[in-house]
């Protein structure tokens, strides 16, 4: 379902301005090694941070992959969701061109598998996990959602994730991967490393968030719109597309957090109260 978010967000923003966020006692466990890989670069990069509420139990979980074109960036916690009764996980992964793209996607899968196995130790529920991320992180989110083999490598089913919410993710083959293979940035490619290649009927909710089509990167809106259309044609009924009018690639993150928070409440069967 494609829709302009201008009217919805105006209501949300107005409500947010009137709310005082209650103080929550949060703790952060930093630089947890989530991999069984033994090479030095893996030991350096494959770490995550967990931000959790002390003494909480069975909370929804947001796994967040950072952006940076798959070539840069550092793990981060989406701070706007602190105080929203959820566990937050910020993930690092290995970067191109130091590794090939299959290694990076595998890192993302291993991180999610770790969360599924261990998040109960931090008050999170393995049955209420949302995978999300911005830009390159959105791309990784899409790949895990649509190509089930990545999580299957770690004995996990991609369909056990409650929702996948990519922020401005690339639906065709990622531009950094294309660059490594001598393909021009403006030459669209759809191969096994393109989320579009793996459209499937039985995918869990896939919520595609993009900025204004006139302000986004290189056809990013159109890629996501095509993905949403193809998911509909194969019979999927849980893929949604939201375009944030007036917001570019970076600016769309702020309004996107409202959708992410709504889903946090949804998977916890609680009403959304901005």
What does this structure look like?
Helix 3 (101-118) crosses helix 4. The chain has one domain (2-16, 26-267): Alpha/Beta hydrolase fold, catalytic domain (Rossmann fold), CATH 3.40.50. It contains eight helices and nine strands. Strand 8, helix 7 (220-233) and strand 9 (239-244) form a beta-alpha-beta unit. A nine-stranded mixed sheet has the order 1-9-8-7-6-4-5-3-2, sandwiched between helices. The chain is of the alpha/beta class and 274 residues long. It has helices at residues 6-16, 40-45, 101-118, 136-146, 149-152, 175-180, 220-233, 253-267, and strands at residues 2-4, 26-33, 47-53, 59-65, 87-91, 124-134, 163-167, 206-211, 239-244. It is 31% helix and 21% strand. The protein starts with a strand and ends in a 7-residue tail after the last helix. The longest helix is centred in the middle third of the chain and has 18 residues, at 101-118.
Task: Identify the notable features of this structure and list them briefly.
274 residues; Rossmann fold; nine-stranded mixed beta sheet; 8 helices; 9 strands; 21% strand; globular
Brief write-up:
By secondary structure, the protein is α/β, with parallel strands linked by helices. The chain has helices at residues 6-16, 40-45, 101-118, 136-146, 149-152, 175-180, 220-233, 253-267; strands spanning 2-4, 26-33, 47-53, 59-65, 87-91, 124-134, 163-167, 206-211, 239-244. It contains eight helices and nine strands.
